[in-house]
């Protein structure tokens, strides 16, 4: 990718100045760099020696869930592919070939495997697999802004406020899943985020509590192995276990007493000693041929890692290729316009989505894994003078597959310009209700805000999207 151009007097450029410059065309090795020590990195030995993990587990067990988890479970896991910046509906899943050139844009539409459904010519693999996908063309994004908060929380009240309190305390869908469902396999996190800019692309727990924040999966890889000086074979002996961890605690200058009889302590041991987390993040365990099939770029390797996390028992994964990557205002901005910026990205997205869905299907995981592809809003119906499209909140398109979603359908419709909803208006709350229902979480349940106030999981007159099963 070309280097970003500096426009210090452009407010939009200033807004993006602090974002990640990582591109999904970069080598996949960038995926596993070692950096910050966030929430789940307490799983490291210093955290175990200091009892932070057992305390965390105990707090989770003592916190009685407010929403019921007795619904039929269609989705054991959710993979939310976040297209940061807001992809153009008119150049992906809702083309208008009969519209004037300044509206229809530079791309042609192609037929798909389902008669009557056409999509962009640069997504032929999705076209061939359209029986696996449902397209929503009528998602209302008027509550959203350049932020992941609204749609990752699936709540129109969760908004960007520019006061370091974005989201209003409403939790993300991933955090709700982590609290009310937890992981599918003991010893695994319930919510993992795969993004190079957590601050810009991932929304967390809000007032639900820090214990339900996502694990920063990009910076966590490689940090779950046994430390030097602790041999797994010796850990079967409780006395030796106590001595080694006491020694670790001494070196870490931590003084909290370890109680080997406490089951939360044992769970913390098991989380590291079992090696489950370390194995899940180890892409080297995948055949080289499959790694190459996914692609060596960031999007491909994150998609493969998402599949491994599903296999390993993680309930909710949110992944993003790069911050603002789909913000195609025009050729004067970092990510370019529709022709120069979006066009080379679409084949990567097309290949990544279809490879992931096919792999899940072949492993028998697609029926229990909900795959969602969306951004924060759509793009304007009229092309800009610099061959791009501006932000557009009245409507956006998104994609869904797996977990009982009937493929080969289009839900909703826009007007002839692709800028307004003409049929089947849906909103963030409808998306949230659908996800929660599929996870077996009562979408009409509630969570408790600080201060004891019951708060609905889904806000307003929203409900599960019937067409998604």
List the helices and strands and how they pair.
Elements: H1 11-16, H2 45-49, H3 52-62, E1 77-82, H4 101-104, E2 109-111, E3 118-120, H5 124-128, E4 133-139, H6 149-153, H7 173-180, E5 191-194, H8 198-201, E6 215-216, H9 217-220, H10 238-251, H11 263-273, H12 276-280, H13 288-294, H14 298-312, E7 316-320, H15 338-342, H16 346-362, E8 369-374, E9 378-379, E10 391-392, E11 396-401, E12 409-411, E13 413-414, E14 421-423, H17 428-439, E15 446-448, E16 454-456
Parallel strand pairs: 1-7, 1-8, 4-12, 5-6, 5-7
Antiparallel strand pairs: 2-3, 4-11, 8-11, 9-10, 13-14, 15-16
Helix pairs in contact: 3-11, 14-16
Walk me through what this model shows:
This protein has 17 helices and 16 strands. The chain has 469 residues and is α/β, with parallel strands linked by helices. The protein has one domain: Alkaline Phosphatase, subunit A (3-Layer(aba) Sandwich), CATH 3.40.720. The longest helix has 17 residues.
Number of domains: 1
What's the count of strands? 16
Share of residues in helices: 25-40%
CATH architecture: 3-Layer(aba) Sandwich
CATH class bucket: Alpha Beta
How many alpha or pi helices? 17
In terms of DSSP E residues, the strand content is: 5-15%
Q: Using the CA coordinates, give the radius of gyration.
A: 22 Å
Features:
single chain, about 475 residues, alpha/beta, Alkaline Phosphatase, subunit A, two-stranded antiparallel sheet
Summarize the structure.
The protein is an alpha/beta fold. The protein is 29% helix and 13% strand.
